[in-house]
């Protein structure tokens, strides 16, 4: 057959004969895969052969579990019946199983071709899969790609290391049908393939738009003195000595002023945890390896982290956002995918991100908050997770407040003594190396983190939606500081939940002239301070709405 004939006759095969595949056929196909493009010659594609009936049976059970879930996602009963009639795998029937993977540990070292996107190593593995498919077709055999699986369980079942990521399970054998020379789904009228590919020439470049929040400072709206005076009067008339509820009275007045009502109600509170990796984390500035970011996000998803516990305790919704973790989470994972890239670049040697990526961070952060607002939420807390992000936040604080880096750097995940001095020296060197423009946007792009910038964008959107903004610890307060520099009126909506054990945090709080609710020596992040402080915020609302006044209780006031 000619190459064109081989390409046209290649099929995603689900029906196989019982014929045994000669070893030379398999080896020739795998060699074809090995000849596929490999970004930066990383040679990161890995192959695992499955011949065991027991393993095939276990994989089939994984498939059936997700196949049932997929069936429930169909649009109507007729489509559900159609779906169940489809044969979507031949895991136990095919004589050979093949698992094509890529090794993401190659990204621990600089790899040509992955600067724009670490996913290039995955693309290389896909090219290898296509080469194998074409080689098998030319030899009279075929392959079927099974992707309806829980990939996390799939990896566990096969005992694959954490750094090895499968594209799926491939059934290999001699095809029992040619499907009338059509793709199977087309032959069964499930979906029709377009006769010709989509092709369009782009001849004009489109200017990159800058979010309005980055264009300059917005003016604060004038205070509504009437509502504030009415709130003060209502609070002072409660059955208590004047000012005796202390900070709760200030909170009640702030919340009533934000919502412009004497009877505020907090609805559908939500804490959003943004997670991303940082290139600076590769220089030993953290006590933990970068992969802990991915591990902790998995922990959030499984419900095992501190933030899960506290949100459950206080009936707060929890949203997890992948802003830029160096990992491909399954598409069905319970998180919001807002990945800008697989971690920033190291700002020790160059910009952490481009200005286009910075703008995208603000846009995506705003969109996430807006979607939560549209569910009826009027109170949103912000949390973060990212190995290396205290270093990023420290540098941003140093720039924004024009302070020496030594005044901004803390222990982070537990860096002490010589390691703390090393962390300071690395960050000092990074600041010294910067020779870019002096404007805020350029510096945010050069030294920023994907999750920090998405939080800042989200906070600005929360202000626009007139939501209560709950600010967690050091990193989230740095994100707030960025938002504050763009719109000082955001402070009216912000409640600072605690003062963390990071030395820079209290300095920012002093600069903003705000009083945190709690001092518990927290330095965990995740939005835990927001969740722990939330009952206090609710107490302020409850006393304002439900506590009796002197008049209603028939109690005499102090003369």
Describe the global form: elongated
Mean pLDDT across the residues is: 87
How many alpha or pi helices? 20
Rg from alpha-carbon coordinates: 28 Å
Low-confidence stretches: 213-222
Report the end-to-end length measured between terminal Cα atoms: 104 Å
* Class computed from helices, strands and strand pairing: alpha/beta
Share of helical residues: 40-55%
Biggest sheet overview: 6 strands, parallel
Order of neighbouring strands in the sheet with most strands: 7-6-5-8-9-10
User: Which sequence of SSEs, written as H and E, runs from N to C?
Assistant: HHEHHEHEHEHHHEHHEEHEHHHHEHEHHH
Percent range for β-strand residues: 5-15%
Can you count the beta strands?
A: 10
Characterization of this structure:
This protein has about 550 residues and is α/β, with parallel strands linked by helices. The protein is about 45% helix and about 10% strand. Helix 17 (about 475-485) links the parallel strand 9 and strand 10.
């Amino acid at each position: 057959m000619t190459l064109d004939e081989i390409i046209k006759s290649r099929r995603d095969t689900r029906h196989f004969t019982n014929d045994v595949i000669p070893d030379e056929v398999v080896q020739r196909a795998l060699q074809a895969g090995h000849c596929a493009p490999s970004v930066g010659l990383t040679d990161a594609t890995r192959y695992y052969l499955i011949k065991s009936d027991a393993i095939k049976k276990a994989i089939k059970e994984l498939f059936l579990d997700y196949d049932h879930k997929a069936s429930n996602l169909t649009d109507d009963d007729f489509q559900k019946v159609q779906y169940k009639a489809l044969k979507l795998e031949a895991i136990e029937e095919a004589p050979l199983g093949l698992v094509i993977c890529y090794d993401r540990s190659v990204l621990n070292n600089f790899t040509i071709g992955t600067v724009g996107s670490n996913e290039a190593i995955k693309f290389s593995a896909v090219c290898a899969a296509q080469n194998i498919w074409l080689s098998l077709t030319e030899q009279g055999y075929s392959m079927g790609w099974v992707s309806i699986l829980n990939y996390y369980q799939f990896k566990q079942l096969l005992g694959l290391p954490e750094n090895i990521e499968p594209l799926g399970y491939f059934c290999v054998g001699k095809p029992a049908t040619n499907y009338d020379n059509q793709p199977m789904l087309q032959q069964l009228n499930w979906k029709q393939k377009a006769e010709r590919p989509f092709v369009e020439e782009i001849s004009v470049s489109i200017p990159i738009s800058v979010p309005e929040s980055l264009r300059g400072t917005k003016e604060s709206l004038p205070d509504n003195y009437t509502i504030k005076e009415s709130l003060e009067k209502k609070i002072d008339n409660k059955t208590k000595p004047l000012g005796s509820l202390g900070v709760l009275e200030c909170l009640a007045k702030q919340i009533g002023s934000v919502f412009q009502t004497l009877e505020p109600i907090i609805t559908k509170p939500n804490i959003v945890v943004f997670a991303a990796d940082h290139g600076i984390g590769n220089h030993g500035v953290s006590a933990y390896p970068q992969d802990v970011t991915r591990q902790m996000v998995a922990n959030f998803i499984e419900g095992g982290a501190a933030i899960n516990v506290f949100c459950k305790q206080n009936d707060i919704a929890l949203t997890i956002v992948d802003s830029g973790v160096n990992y491909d989470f399954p598409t069905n994972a319970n998180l919001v995918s807002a990945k800008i890239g697989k971690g920033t670049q190291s700002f020790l040697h160059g910009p952490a991100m481009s200005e286009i990526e910075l703008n995208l961070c603000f846009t995506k952060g705003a969109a996430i908050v807006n979607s939560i607002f549209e569910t009826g939420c009027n109170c949103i807390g912000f949390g973060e997770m990212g190995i290396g992000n205290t270093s990023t936040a420290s540098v941003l604080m140093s720039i924004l407040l024009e302070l020496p880096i030594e005044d901004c750097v803390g222990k982070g995940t537990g860096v002490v003594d010589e390691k703390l001095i090393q962390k300071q020296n690395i960050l000092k060197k990074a600041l010294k190396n910067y020779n870019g423009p002096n404007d805020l946007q350029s510096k945010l792009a050069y030294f920023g983190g994907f999750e920090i910038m998405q939080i800042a964008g989200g906070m600005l959107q929360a202000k626009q939606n007139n939501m209560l903004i709950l600010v967690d610890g050091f990193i989230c307060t740095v994100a707030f500081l960025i938002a504050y520099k763009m719109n000082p009126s955001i402070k009216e909506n912000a409640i600072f939940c605690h003062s963390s054990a990071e030395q820079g945090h209290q300095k920012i709080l002093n600069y903003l002239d705000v009083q945190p609710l709690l001092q518990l020596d927290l330095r965990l992040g995740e939005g835990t301070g927001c969740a722990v402080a939330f009952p206090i915020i609710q107490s302020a609302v409850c006393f304002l709405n439900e506590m009796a006044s002197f008049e209603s209780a028939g109690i005499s006031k102090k003369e």
